[in-house]
Amino acid sequence: MNGVNGLNGNAENSKSETNTRILQALEIVHNPRSDNALRQDASQYLEQIRSDEEAPYHGFGLATEKEQPPVVRFYGLSLLEYGVRHKWSNYTPEQSKALRDWVITLALNLSTEDPPYIANKVAEIWVEIAKRSWGMDWMDMDEVLIRIWNGEIVQRLLVLAILETLSEDVFGNDDTTVALRGNDLNRACVDIFTPAEVLTEQFPTREIMIDVRHGADGWLTRMAALLEWCISGKDIDEKQQLCAVKTLYTFKSVIIWIIPKALVSTQSVNRICACLAVSNIPIQLAAVDSLYSLYNRSRFSEEDFRDIVGPMLKDDTITLLKQLYQWLIVDPSDIDEAKYLLLKKFSEMIFNIGRLLEEHPSFAPEGSNLAGFLDVLLTVMKNPSLHVSIPALHLWVKFLSSDDVGNSPAVTALVGELLETCSHRLVRYESLPEDSKDPSILFLNEDVDTFPEKHAFLGNYARFCNQIVELVVQKQPIDALYHILGQADHVLDHVYDGEPAFQASTYTKTSVPLLRLDAQFTVIEAALKGCLKWLTSSGNATTAHEHDVMASNLRVWCDRLLSLTFEDPSIKQRVIQLAVGFASGPLKREPRFAFKVFDYMLDTRCPEYPGCRAYTDAVRDLQQFSLHQLQRIAMRFPNDLATIFDEVEAKVMSVSRTIDPNGPTPSRYSSVLFIILHRATNIDAQIREARLDLFIQPLIEQWQSSELAQSLTSSEAFSKLLGLDDLQKYLAARAVHKIPDWSSCPLDDEGRALQDRMGKALEALPLRVTKTIMSVSVERLEETSQPFEMACRLWHKNIPLILPNLLQFISRSQAFHDPSNWSGLPPEMQDVVRRILTDRFWQVGISEGTKEEFYAKVGDTRATMEGLASAVRSAVRIVRETGYRLLYYMSLLGEHFYSFPELPGPLSSALFSDACSLSPHQMTILVEMTRPVIENCPEQFRSHFLPPLLSSLFEQLDRKARSEWERIEERSRTKTEEDDLTNEMKDESILRQLTMAAVMFVVGLVEPPKEPPPAAPEVPTAKKNGEMVIPTPEPTRTFILHTPDILKPVILFCTHALLPEFSGDGPVEPEVREFVSTEVLKSCITSLHDPYFVELQRDFAGLIASILISYSPRTETPKEILLSLPGMSADKVDRAVRHLLKAQSNSRQQRAIILDLLEGFRGVAIHEQGKLPRPDPKKMRSKLQEKYMTVDMQTESKREPSPDLTGVAGMFG
């Protein structure tokens, strides 16, 4: 194959004719004046020619013709690439060598006049060939690369591109072709990059199976020398800059896997660091990126740490870092984007260096300037840009949490500045106006595009600040608290300085005085956590006196706080929250102080201003919050409050009647008294239990009322019970279906009276009070505690009296969503039912504005037709979800709930008979509620209790999900430009949330049990071989997998969840194996083909591999499904199955085998179809930045990995 003829030896005249047609087609496609029909025909021809056997030959011819426009040459290269990627396995050795030789020729003939994208494409094709043949039938690649390297700068840049791409594909990406080669390419890369002497030193007994390297230097040595040349002169020209940047990014790709000794022997780290001193932002940015990758490695030996991390802690490097940081300071009002990007990368690099130091402080070489490094870290943390500051802030948390680093003199000397900075940064930035001139807000607006991201980021930033305050106080409690409380005194004395006095008419939750106080109280709350940890960890005679002094000082400060008077209800709420924090924290041994806080909450009042809605809402929030905090104090000090129970009872009931004499408030406040009696151990148990019985008897009588039972016998009676008996008549009379905007239609007197009746009817129901009493009697209690056992006895006899009507409440509230039960509305108004009962809620990333703005908007519509609809849906929702919650509390009682033999059928009917009438959002809540009821079921009751519930749940989920997806698909097909895209996005997002909730429920049911932590020894009940054996309960997974009545609907739902549009018929009486081998496998393949699921192709490939590995030895069905695909041969399928069975322990290779087998059926990413531009890698956030934008980061240290789907895969076995 000499390139004169094609891959199959065709003559030159064929080449000329085809090339002419290709040139004509390209001219038509790229000419803006071309006719659309001609352009489509030309595009179709250009697409078809790629599949021609001679396409690579034509492509090479076009690519080598320098006189052709670059777009033509690039298309020629794409023909070569297509042949390599998709037809390589069909080529003979001679054809493969011809392709290889063509690419080498293209590489040698590159010139400076060629556009960069030509060189990049040549590099990509080179790497694709290397992944398929290097080390197999292409042994001299390294030698060829060196020959090209010795050419001009353009050739060196090409070699760097090849090396960078090869390194990323082999080590960084989950590349299918690489995975199929096993570890061959990994070893080959290590060979050619590493100096020979380092390989010999590190692996003295290493046998060279295949010699792929040329020369002793290795590419790391050549790259380091080139980098030194690029920055050696005083003035760096464009070629040197381009070359240095490319070299550094090649280093970045290699540095994550190369042997550390190779970096040391080639002086690579020193040469990369030298680039930081060059006043050239592109070079500095590339250098910082490379160092970030280097120090992002997970581990170094002590010697490697000394040689690689140690230089960054030397005096001259510290000086360089300080100078670079100062040079990078940017003006927030006129941000230099290049400098600012470099500044953020610099901060992340510092984080990685510090992380390694925190993990191995003893590895730091002698003479390291730790104080200097910490000074750099503190300076970065103080940067007004929170995005620059947060990596340093995060690192300070790590340092202070470390016994070795956190207690060092260098850290201790800076805790004052840390405390000061964190105190100032705990202001609620999200509450400041976006047009604020505060530098942090200006930077924040530059860095964050969406409110959800801002919310998550600021939450993480505040969390780190809180942790630093907590850790500082834990280490230096006396001094730190003195400083913090002194700051708080100053704020309390000047809270309204520069601001107008409080007025209810202008009340807002984001007033400056409130934000000032909130920030300071947040600092104190963080300090209390640190103080509490210090108190519990230091218990010797020396510290006992310090404890007493601190408690006395805190009590004096709190007494002053409680003596202050505030008119703002939100400030009063924050004072109560802080006071309860003191009472349950460092002053938890001071019951007299707890009594004082208890009295303060009961005595807290706010004057009424009915015309000030925002203020009135805040007062209502204060009352609810105070009740919750009273319950908290009652739980913490039950014995102390029991000693003065009569006084407490008299005052609590007096206050409750004062607040709401005719409403449900007295019953809610009685929960405080219930808690005291229930949890006090200094009162005789029989007396307590008798009094508790008296507490709940009126409630039980209400549940047993014949009037209540009668009101739950029909939809009409239920409507009357909720005060909705006149609703349908009212809606029909006002023809609300003809009103497009309900929020602009004020309510008349009849509508307002209807609203009032609903509110009063809802408060008269026993649901809420029962929920309150039941929650305080079972939550936060050990199952072996006396209060829990008492609760079990108390509710065991009362649950059967509550359940019949409770199930009717749930059933009727769900059936209320069925339009057929609204018989009072004419047929043309049936859509009004859905409109009324669809919840309005703020949704992250989709809803416009902030959550506060959304709730303000909802409040503004209270006196409109939309407000009436909101009241209706709220009433029904409260009934439904309170019923769910009561079932959850009952499930915590174990056998006292699950042992009723007649319960499963009625419970399943109540929960799921009308579940499909609910909206997807409401059904998600139903799924989340059902989950703990299932999980809490004791093992001995599973066979009786779980089958009817789980089978009904997943049958309804499958039905609901499919019908909703069909509705969305239908709307998508018929939508017009006038349709509301926001609502469409919201509906689809909500449906995906339902699907995700259900799928995660399945994962929880069938995933294998995790290894249990070591537990305290239990009383053994059996012996085996003379050894005591502790019985282990059977996992729920085992029960589910061996109960076909549950497993069938679960698998059917999961199959449809894989691909919403898939509509295969469910099994009537099939074996699970055959169903999975057909329907699940087809659904996976269809999803693999869908461009929407490109990012999930690896997961689908893993699932397909699991099916083939588990079932192919037992049935031919999976192979038959694969053979039904067009162009799929039996040999190809058999070969893939053989390779899968050999690679059972290598999941990466399994995925690669499947992706290779189904290569022609895989979907193409949207950006590759030209529909969307590919994201700019330089503008993409780093993984660290993405972490800081994630809400879940708060649990990263304790967070378990994503659910392991081996549990699902295990069903195939």
UniProtKB/TrEMBL annotation:
<dbReference type="GO" id="GO:0042565">
    <property type="term" value="C:RNA nuclear export complex"/>
</dbReference>
<dbReference type="GO" id="GO:0006611">
    <property type="term" value="P:protein export from nucleus"/>
</dbReference>
<dbReference type="GO" id="GO:0005737">
    <property type="term" value="C:cytoplasm"/>
</dbReference>
<feature type="region of interest" description="Disordered">
    <location>
        <begin position="1192"/>
        <end position="1213"/>
    </location>
</feature>
<dbReference type="GO" id="GO:0031267">
    <property type="term" value="F:small GTPase binding"/>
</dbReference>
<dbReference type="GO" id="GO:0003723">
    <property type="term" value="F:RNA binding"/>
</dbReference>
<dbReference type="GO" id="GO:0005049">
    <property type="term" value="F:nuclear export signal receptor activity"/>
</dbReference>
<dbReference type="Pfam" id="PF19273">
    <property type="entry name" value="Exportin-5"/>
</dbReference>
<dbReference type="InterPro" id="IPR045478">
    <property type="entry name" value="Exportin-5_C"/>
</dbReference>
<protein>
    <recommendedName>
        <fullName>Importin N-terminal domain-containing protein</fullName>
    </recommendedName>
</protein>
<dbReference type="GO" id="GO:0006405">
    <property type="term" value="P:RNA export from nucleus"/>
</dbReference>
<dbReference type="InterPro" id="IPR001494">
    <property type="entry name" value="Importin-beta_N"/>
</dbReference>
<comment type="similarity">
    <text>Belongs to the exportin family.</text>
</comment>
<feature type="domain" description="Importin N-terminal">
    <location>
        <begin position="42"/>
        <end position="109"/>
    </location>
</feature>
<feature type="region of interest" description="Disordered">
    <location>
        <begin position="1009"/>
        <end position="1028"/>
    </location>
</feature>
<dbReference type="GO" id="GO:0005634">
    <property type="term" value="C:nucleus"/>
</dbReference>
<dbReference type="InterPro" id="IPR011989">
    <property type="entry name" value="ARM-like"/>
</dbReference>
<dbReference type="InterPro" id="IPR045065">
    <property type="entry name" value="XPO1/5"/>
</dbReference>
<dbReference type="InterPro" id="IPR016024">
    <property type="entry name" value="ARM-type_fold"/>
</dbReference>
